[in-house]
Amino acid sequence: MTERVDVAVVGLGAMGSAVLHQLAKRGCAAVGIDRFRPPHDLGSSHGETRITRQAVGEGAAYVPFVSASHRIWRELETATGQRLFESCGALIMGPGTRPSSHHGKPDFARRSMAVAREFAIEHECLDAASLAARFPFLAGLTDEVGYFEPGGGYLYPERCIGAQLARAEALGARTMPDTEVLAIEPDASGVTIRTQAGTVRADRAVVAAGAWTAPLLGDPFPRLLTVRRQVLHWFALEKGAPITSTDPVFIWMHGTGDGDYFYGFPPLEGDGRLKVATEQYRVPTSADAIVREVEARESEAMFDVHLSGRIGGVSRHAVKAAACAYTVTPDQGFIIDRHPDSERVTVVSACSGHGFKHSAGIGECVAELLSTGHATADLAPFALARFRLH
């Protein structure tokens, strides 16, 4: 049998769950399909916590998404009774005089300051002495500059995805978990989604499949999307460690390259662990080939290269580690655009490792676009036209 809907959403991680929720809010007949059972730990949207910040050093074009997301998370908290967003503050640090880079952008801390000024986002600018006095868990400071945003913090990604899918279903959407999509076939009158569980016929489709996007869609996406394995680490805190659950999330650029940085989270209430990670953009993989196991030497290297001498009270003992996938474009920006060969397929990928904070707002924007033909946010910076497709 063939199910008929207005919109089919392929992939129900951060972006897909948000799109499905917002479509359902608008009364759209929608179905969401995922090859696993979301929220799950096989894609890009897991690991207990994700940083959120409004002054986006990656570029001012992202600010409308994250601002809308903060509103939507609070609305979802009211609707579901769940805690989704902890606004403990966000701290971004970089060298004061030396070059640095983050997500392909130089001098990321000062870029964040500039965006905050442009959008009147509450913030403070701190020097190394002020950082040391304000945040005793920081060690080894020299000439750092810091951007502190009190309205930033962290999200609980699994809860956020689960809440949006639950609300979507309550509003009439249907989900198809544990269902692999075999083919996406657009034509002049709609899109046929062939799955192992049957066929879905939709007027339009949204593909938000993360690391599986390129294999599903084919050219030109294999040339534009690269999957990178990233590792999250949880280290035991020593007794009396100076970092507590009331401290901010932090991002610290300490070298010249995109990999010369790390980010972390305050310990959750009652938890004696510190979650930290960095990013690597050298070794590619694929959705199906990614190595899920994390070797002890990877956590040891994380501690030695990034944490040692910089974060006080952290034990060298990693009590947990996990791998996730970033799907990255050549310029580390997002893709939110129609498929170049079909106006009926909208692609929402890749999000290049900094997408979760924007996901609820992007879902609202994409649902608006599909419902009305127009989007409030400017999507031009995320169009495929910026790449050479032929």
Description:
This protein has 390 residues and is α+β, with helices and mostly antiparallel strands. It folds into 2 domains: 2-46 and 157-225 and 331-386, FAD/NAD(P)-binding domain; 90-150 and 227-328, 2-Layer Sandwich (D-Amino Acid Oxidase, Chain A, domain 2), CATH 3.30.9. Helix content is 25%, strand content 31%. The protein contains 9 helices and 22 strands. The protein has helices spanning 14-25, 63-80, 108-118, 128-134, 157-170, 213-217, 221-224, 296-307, 359-372, and strands spanning 2-10, 30-33, 50-52, 85-86, 90-94, 101-102, 105-106, 124-127, 145-149, 153-155, 174-176, 181-187, 190-195, 198-207, 226-237, 249-253, 261-264, 273-277, 284-285, 314-328, 336-339, 342-348. The strands form 4 sheets. Strands 5, 8, 9, 15, 16, 17, 18, 19 and 20 form a 9-stranded mixed beta sheet that branches. Strands 1, 2, 11, 12, 13, 14, 21 and 22 form an 8-stranded mixed beta sheet that branches. Strands 3-10-4 form a 3-stranded antiparallel beta sheet. A hairpin with a 2-residue loop joins strand 13 and strand 14. Helix 1 (14-25) packs parallel to helix 5 (157-170), helix 1 packs across helix 9 and helix 2 (63-80) packs across helix 5. The longest helix is centred in the N-terminal third of the chain and has 18 residues, at 63-80. It is globular.
In brief:
This protein is α+β, with helices and mostly antiparallel strands and 390 residues long. The protein is 25% helix and 31% strand. The protein contains nine helices and 22 strands.
Tell me the name of the CATH class of the largest domain: Alpha Beta
What quaternary form is this? single chain
Q: Helix share of residues?
A: 10-25%
Mean pLDDT: 96
CATH superfamily of the largest domain: FAD/NAD(P)-binding domain
Structural class: alpha+beta
Amino-to-carboxy terminus distance: 38 Å
According to DSSP, the number of beta strands is: 22
**What are the low-pLDDT stretches, counting only 5+ consecutive residues below 50?**
none
Q: What portion of residues belong to β-strands?
A: 25-35%
Number of helices, counting only DSSP H or I runs of 4 residues or more: 9
Major sheet characteristics: 9 strands, mixed
The structural domain count equals: 2
Q: Give the second-level CATH assignment, the architecture of the largest domain.
A: 3-Layer(bba) Sandwich
CATH topology of the largest domain: FAD/NAD(P)-binding domain
Q: Globular, elongated, flat, extended or rod-shaped: what is the shape?
A: globular
Gyration radius over CA: 21 Å
